[in-house]
Amino acid sequence: MTTIVPKDRIVQAIAEEFTALEALIADLDERAWSAATPCPGWDVRANVAHVIGTESMLAGVKAPAVEIDRVTAAHVRNDIGRSNEVWVEALRTTPPPEIVDRFRAITTTRLDALRSMEQARWDADGFTPAGRDSYGRFMRIRAFDCWMHEQDIRDALGRPGHDSGLTVEVALDEMVAAMGFVVGKQAGAPEGTAVTFELTGASGRTFHVVVRGRATVVDGLESPATTTLTMPVGVFTRLGGGRSSADPSAVSVQGDEALGARIVEHLRYTI
Question: Which of 102, 136, 184, 247 is deepest in the core (most CB within 10 A)?
Fold first, then answer.
């Protein structure tokens, strides 16, 4: 079923994220650009290059013709990862001021395109990193992805922030939508299971996954949960993204502890 998401809300979230990212990278020195981040295999420069590359692809810019070293790019796991790495490699030696300028230029172009996009195209079915779905769903994934990479950069630089607001809410909307897959498929929760996620912090929320034939995210439960997992939003997002900064010990499990442990172990679902 095609996911229909509100255009104005998602575009505003992307605009706010581009602004936050630009402010974060605008004054970085050369050493900061080379700082390793929790995103496997990527430094700060690579995270920004990835955002530039994906937005360039969406704007119709042809990918650079570069070779990917299979040794240094051992973190690449699939075709999408390989296409991401092309832009990382292409911008590896680009001076930071030029990278910032390219970021500003492509994000301005993309926001202009999104704001002028007709509703029919926004709702149209097509490719997304999560399979075929609406273009709007793809843009919700973009808000999530860009925010995650902003957090990667913040973790690398020791500059925590942007942990609440519209972009974070949209990023969580996207992540929550994947939790049926995590609980049912990856963690193998049995039929009749009900799992509650209690996310704490400024953007905290509560949601549930029930397994009835298939695992589905629901707003409420008719009976107590089989397992309840409580964790800060930042832990949830980092575990879901497979980041090295994730801290599984920060997750509190009540109820079926074995199932809770499997969910935490298999919470990573991104590429």
Answer: 136
